[in-house]
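Listing 4. Sequential folding, example run.
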Amino acid sequence: MILADIYQLWNSIWPAGATLLALGSGFAIILLIASEKLKVEIDPKILQINEALPSLDCGGCGFAGCGQYAKAVLANPDLLGKCAPGGQAATEAIAKILNLQVSDAAAPKRPIVHCKGHTKDKTFNAIYHGIQSCIAANALAPAQACKFGCLGLGDCVGVCKFDAIKIIDGLATIDYEKCTGCGACAKHCPRNLIEMVPFSQEKMMTVACSSRESGKVTRSMCKVGCIGCGICEKMGEQFSIENNLARVDYEKYQPSEKNQLALNKCPKKVIIEAG
């Protein structure tokens, strides 16, 4: 009796099972055919370029990640050399894949903070208690008297994937041993205090200030701000004064006795060596 019941049950369910199996197999075959027909062929050169990149996805090249940059540089070889973390080695590897010749390497760009004011050096109109973000603080009436100075709230720290920048006593400070030159910190500074500079030398002289106020006003806001006195312009070879602020011509910069004299004679000691 039990065997008869089992046999009857089997006869009632196997057609449905067979139908489901047939349908499943049919759909699998259709999907397999569709995947073959519709798949996008990836140029093997894109894969080779991607392997030549450091896989950091830092965005310093202007693209969302290394994969996107690999596609872009294959389509437009003028983008060659945009990978700062990969440096000249990545550029040469990609050039070889693309069968291109590369010229002498341009000086790698690295960030410089155009501010020297730590918390103790700054004058404050009030204590800021708002959102702990430079963008938020910069949008409000200035609690910090100098509207050109580092706000020290760390937006640049948050976007650095390499732990290469920290806030030390209210000032963004770069660790050049960790820095890859991706440029993320410069892009996210609302006051544009961080500049990507071609490092033609291991250490570069720079003016660690961005204030364009008169010397008198700058002195009232910051103990270490540039007062636009012009001593560096008279003594150095690549210094100039623009809008009350000393500047270095980085494209022409070379170490020299005159430039060293300008650094030594700066009354506010705002000319420093970065690197």
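-- end of first protein; second protein begins --
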Amino acid sequence: MNTSSNSNYQPPYTITPEILNRVAAISEAIGRLTVLTDRARALRLRRINRIRTIFGSLAIEGNTLTEAQITAILDGKRVIASPREVREVKNALSAYERFDTYKPAAEKDLLEAHRILMSSLIDDAGIYRRGGVGVMAGRQVIHMAPSAHQVPHLMADLFGWLAATNAHPLIASSVFHYEFEFIHPFADGNGRMGRLWQSLILARWNPLFADIPVESLIFEHQAEYYEAIQESTRETDSAPFIAFMLRMISATVTTSAPQVNPQVSPQVGELLAVIEGEMGREALQAILDLSDRKSFRERYLRPALADGLIEMTIPNKPNSRLQKYRLTDRGRLWRAQRRHP
């Protein structure tokens, strides 16, 4: 990271073959996940993953509340825990509620998010630090951040670069995260803010990242997270941190995808391959060149319905003459995986 204001600042990072391969793999995995269009299911996932995100990000900072306790707080229930830890959770819930309103390249939004995230926890919530700060590992200082008077210039450079860069968002978000942690612009809350802002940058590339809990996986690999930051600092190149973050994102995207059993009968596979939008029985039989109604129902329709791969448009009237069938999330994902194994 440089130490003087420069509107053309370019953070130092190298694009390695691993980074390129990770970007390609994540992009493909995200493409598969976008077949999930069922809104009710998406909202359920958003709630679950938002809780996991907040749990992971706060646990990295030493918060001991469980996912169940965070869920209880979200539901307005009282939990037995330290007031500070409860406040951290409530603040994080408030900050993530405003997630969709923040703009990644807007410095004022970052300051506002920090103000919400650290409200009643530190005196300088939403304000860049006024003193020196070091990152500690036990009693050892592992990183001495730039002096306080440099912070506004360094952050202006970083936001200027983010607004202008044409780097892939997977790379740009990781670079921003590393540079943010290097500057350590706040008296406290830098880790959770860096992770929040990386998620925000990614979510503006693909909305699915608003609900993919990368933080929970970072928590499971906390030592590697800090080691990647240190290694990038030693090398004056954020490539080690970029590679680490992309490994975490890749693993999270993979585990976020619902599991689909690929073992379907050839007949069901044929049915899934031809359904487009909502289609009636006669249209489906015609496109499959099938004349036997009973055979179609027993070998194609019923198994596909039983496996949750298709659904009725009028489920409470299965024999309606207006009945049509459409793919479910599971069916769309099965078909996507067949096309792009």
